[in-house]
Amino acid sequence: MKKCFLLLLLCLLTSFNTKAQIFSRQASVYQSINSLYRKPTKDELKKIAPSPELFEKYAEFLRQPKTGLTKLAADVGCAENTKVVVVTDECLKYTMPGAGFSYSFRTDSYRIPRLADLIFTDNSFQAAGIFLHGIFVNIGDVPLDKVTPQTNGLEFLVNFQPEVDYGKAKEIDRQLSEGIKKNGFLYRRGLYAVENTTFVLRSIAYRGKYFQAIRGLTYNEFAFDKRKDIIVAFRIVQKQADESVTILWKELARKDAPTIKKKDRAAENKE
């Protein structure tokens, strides 16, 4: 009887220990996932905050709704792979997701590059997010507070119709990579970051599913994002010796983005 009791107790302890290990592993995985999409901490934001002088200079503009002043660090390769942590001194300076060079106007926060609207890299502004059409246009030295959706140069960008067919969307992406010229303006998914000019970006972050896996757990990354269709005007107001830039911006429009449709693999295999 005593042996049976001890055997039962051992089985129970083994079962509890196994469950505890499973729960511990799941908690660790969830923590790893959440760390990719978290908001920057106060300390992280303090390190990358624009200068107080700029906030003072543009205080009146920033009192308007849907405006912001954002510093973008130089891209030194700190966030090329979300599964690899780079521990150089430069990378340890900006430890938030995206390492300070990729920003989402949709969430008003620094984000990993594939979920960002704006990526500052190689002295250029890029839109290279997943399932995202980013359209930049340089409209010249137009005061930011004068820019509206009716401003000269925005007609093509404003009237652009999102494409939900994956194949057709890929073709549009190719065209935007090369550049589309309309009425004297160039619309591209990336432009050089020049001063004394105003840029306008339309960022269409299509809804859908984009699966990622961490240590065996598969999840839809878009569940951690706001998939919207937005238009933002911005301009560089400061360039620093460390190659970082500070941009002043305002949001012109926002609406829900459509869902992109991909063929399932079975259908693709039949073709």
Describe the 3D structure.
The chain starts with a helix and ends with a helix. The chain has 271 residues and is of the alpha+beta class. The strands form three sheets. The protein has a seven-stranded antiparallel β-sheet. Strands 3-2-4-5-9 form a five-stranded antiparallel β-sheet, with no helix packed on it. Strands 11-12 form a two-stranded antiparallel sheet. The C terminus is likely disordered. It has eight helices and 14 strands. It folds into two domains: 37 residues; 231 residues, no CATH class.
- Using the CA coordinates, give the radius of gyration: 23 Å
| Main sheet specs | 7 strands, antiparallel
- Widest sheet: strand ordering: 1-14-13-10-6-8-7
User: Roughly what fraction of the amino acids lie in strands?
Assistant: 25-35%
Distance between the termini: 68 Å
| Uncertain ranges | 18-23, 265-271
Helix amount = 25-40%
Tell me the series of helices and strands, N- to C-terminal.
Answer: HHHHEHEEEEEHHEEEEEEEEH
Shape: globular
Query: How many structurally independent domains?
Result: 2
The strand count comes to 14
Structural class: alpha+beta
What does the average pLDDT come to? 87
Helix count, per DSSP? Answer: 8
